[in-house]
Amino acid sequence: MRLLNLVPKRPAAILLAAVPFGLVLLAYTVGSELRLAANPSDRLLPALSTIGNTAVDLFTQPDRRSGDILLWQDTLVSLQRLFLGVGLASVVALGLGIAIGMLPYARATLSSFVAVVSMVPPLALLPILFIVFGLGEVSKVALITIGITPFMIRDLSQRVQDIPHEEIIKAQTLGGSTNVIASRVVLPQILPRLISSIRLSLGSAWLFLIAAEAVASDVGLGYRIFLVRRYLAMDVILTYVIWITLLAFLIDLALKAFSRRAFPWMGASL
Amino acid sequence: MSFVSVRNVWQSYDQRPILERVNIDIDEGDFISIVGASGCGKSTFLRLLLAEEVPSRGEIRIDDGPIAREPGRERGVVFQRYSVFPHMTVRQNIVAGEAFGTRWGWLGGKARRAAEARADAMLDRIGLSHVADNYPATLSGGMQQRLAIGQALTAKPRILMLDEPFGALDPGTRLSMHDFLMELRRETGMTVFMVTHDLAEGFKLGDRVLVFDKPRWDPQDPAAFGATITYDFDARNGGIPFQTIEETRYDPALA
């Protein structure tokens, strides 16, 4: 039988999905054992148990100076920045995406501009953002927004144009004005696309968030990682990295579940 | 005076004529079938009737009204596919036929309940009341087309355009859709234009059958001339043709 026709059964599929995770864990454990055997005070690859203990401490022990649990505080602040940036980008992308997708005049005016702007590397703009908006929250949120908005505009305007022309004509024969067609035909059909666009952009959003926090911040997940790097605190860094990964994964899962529930008419096409 | 008048209509894309010298008068309540080979301009003609496009020359008027520059409520349409809104339930699709004409596209309170009651009556009529709360994706092709026709009729258009409405349906469903369409037509007396590939279907349903073809043909440059109405059959009483053939061969030596 051809390889491309061989489909794993359910238990085998779950096992196979676990294999790469297991291999990474195994490779780390072996490497860590080897280094710790040679030098018990090695800091580069701390034992899994050390990371576990550090993680428990990070999640439960308040900071001696401020009395706050730093990890939760970092998480809260970072997520706030992330949601603000992504939310802002979504609103802008939704408005401009629908306009560019629906209106030939908006398309003629904006589509080349957006295409050019999306080529600007957002991180290169970070110094400008710090100069213009200062080192506070605004510049970080702005970096995330600027970083992902052009992609989302292009994605959404393309999705708007993918709506069958027949539907738009039909809506006109039912007497729909541009406003009505935008709000009752285009917007509801583009919302699930917005969710998938957000899911695709979240990776970049995290990148920009951590970059901005690493450069100038006094709280946040990215700030903490780059702070403890100075002390070679690999156990803390790894805990934070796993935590960020878990957060990103959960947000993605939540968006997917939301999309399924909110747009039942999409059926299996999500 | 005719209900729909088409006067010397030409349509070209990029200097390429698609339709030329199309003239026809349609009486109110007639069912017009439009047939022809692929690429002979019948769909273009329907788009012109629909006012989705404006002809390069000539004019189309309904009931001596103004020349339409964009589709509106006086022209209803059902396409082969994508004629209903996938994000609305079957009932909402029918209600949209009334709601879209309002300022914001929504009906509130009493108006909405009245529209929903009328929508349920329409759904009864088109045999879809048992799926009123389903989304179109769960319906069969025939049901979706019935919904599309019901939705178009809800807006009370003056003429109804059908662009190969049954082209994607299986033969059995197609026959039952014919009966359905004939019944609706008897009830509403609507003026209907239907583009079809199926000659038998065209003659079965139509009062008149218009055939689009190129009367002039340049073998060296097949796209040099556009198509026009070459036959106009009276399809009532078994279909007795009443108009002569207008076919002339184009001879470059005489041009």
Task: Give a structural overview.
The complex is a heterodimer of chains A (270) and B (255). Chain A is an all-alpha fold and 270 residues long. In chain A, α5 (122-133) crosses α6 and α6 packs antiparallel against α8. Chain A has ten helices and no strands. Chain B has 255 residues and is of the alpha/beta class. Chain B has helices spanning 42-49, 90-99, 109-125, 141-154, 171-188, 199-205; strands at 4-13, 16-26, 31-36, 57-62, 75-78, 159-163, 191-195, 208-213, 228-234, 240-241. In chain B, β6 (159-163), α5 and β7 form a beta-alpha-beta unit. In chain B, α2 (90-99) crosses α3 (109-125) and α2 packs parallel to α4 (141-154). The longest helix of chain B is centred in the C-terminal third of the chain and has 18 residues, at 171-188. The model of chain B is unreliable at 242-249 (pLDDT under 50). The chains are: A mainly alpha (270), B alpha/beta (255).
State the end-to-end CA separation of chain B: 37 Å
Structural class estimated from helices and strands of chain B? alpha/beta
Name the quaternary structure.
heterodimer
> Uncertain spans of chain B, ≥5 residues at pLDDT below 50?
242-249
Mean of pLDDT of chain B: 85
Strand content of chain A: under 5%
Looking at the structure, what is the overall shape of chain A? globular
Q: How widely separated are the two ends of chain A?
A: 31 Å
Radius of gyration of chain B: 20 Å
**Largest Cβ-defined interface:** A-B, 24 and 39 residues
The structural class of chain A is mainly alpha
Query: What's the rounded overall pLDDT mean of chain A?
Result: 92
Considering DSSP H and I runs of 4 or more, what fraction of the residues of chain B is helical?
A: 25-40%
Number of strand elements of chain B? 10
Proportion of strand residues of chain B: 15-25%
